[in-house]
Write a structure and sequence with these properties.
single chain; 243 residues; alpha+beta; four-stranded antiparallel β-sheet; 8 strands; 51% helix
Length: 243
């Protein structure tokens, strides 16, 4: 150990950074460790001999640059800078998603104001568009009954997932701010981009969980409790989630 010189310390430190990096699951930390290790290797190649080992230096610089680009991409994806300005106001409704994943979904969406009475789905018809109602209630007509479900929900999500036809007709009760995605485009995008598919599935799963959590207690229903509008709406919404 007494004979170790600067170049020996550099190569050992570089190798140590790579070992630590490969033991870390977190992608940002892993890439950071590899970047530090690469810089140490470049330093080592520059001082290990009287003449710098230029081929090794350029090769390491290339891999380090690629790693740096990937690291910056990860940092950007986790930053709110990734959120498009026109969707910043609604990110709070999807803040469980990383900003980069939210950006992917919004780039595939179209945001528009829809008038009161606009029909989102038709009972028995194929669902070609997936909607997310940012504000405004949705009226659901199913099997001769009508009820309302609150804003901040997907409409047509189960039909999108299963390919089934709509089980209810749905309408906007007032002028509403709406996000819409073409189902065919979503399926194509999800097939070629696993991260996009996971982000969309996460959004829909969160929406379904919210609908289930708002449902009334089945025990109360079995006891014959009287159903008022506040109880019927969420329960019916759960039964008609594939509208």
């Amino acid at each position: 150990m007494e004979d170790l010189n600067l170049s020996d310390f550099l190569v050992l430190a570089a190798a140590g950074m790579f070992v630590l990096g490969y033991l870390i699951i977190n992608q940002i930390m892993l890439r950071t460790m590899l970047l530090i290790g690469t810089m140490l290797y470049i330093w080592y190649y520059a001082v290990v001999d009287e003449t710098p080992l230029w081929p090794a230096i350029w090769a390491s610089a290339a891999t380090g640059t690629a790693n740096m680009i990937g690291l910056l991409s990860l940092l950007y994806r986790g930053s709110t800078w990734a959120i498009p300005n026109k969707y910043r106001d609604i990110y709070v409704q999807f803040d469980l998603l990383p900003p980069g994943d939210f950006r992917k979904l919004m780039r595939a969406a179209h945001r528009a104001m829809k008038p009161a009475g606009f029909q989102l789905t038709r009972e028995g018809s194929r669902v070609n568009t997936l909607y997310y109602v940012i504000d405004g209630e949705v009226e659901v007509a199913k099997s001769g009954s009508r009820f309302s479900i609150p804003e901040g929900i997907f409409v047509g999500e189960v039909a999108y997932l299963t390919g089934n036809r709509a089980s209810a007709s749905t309408y906007l009760t007032r002028d509403s701010d709406v996000l819409e995605w073409e189902v065919a485009m979503l399926k194509q995008r999800a097939a070629r981009d696993p991260r996009f598919r996971l982000a969309m599935d996460a959004m829909i799963s969160l929406d379904l969980a919210g609908k289930v959590s708002r449902a009334g207690s089945p025990v109360q229903l079995q006891k014959g409790a009287k159903l008022n509008a506040d109880t019927v709406s969420p329960l019916a919404a759960v039964n008609a989630m594939d509208a």
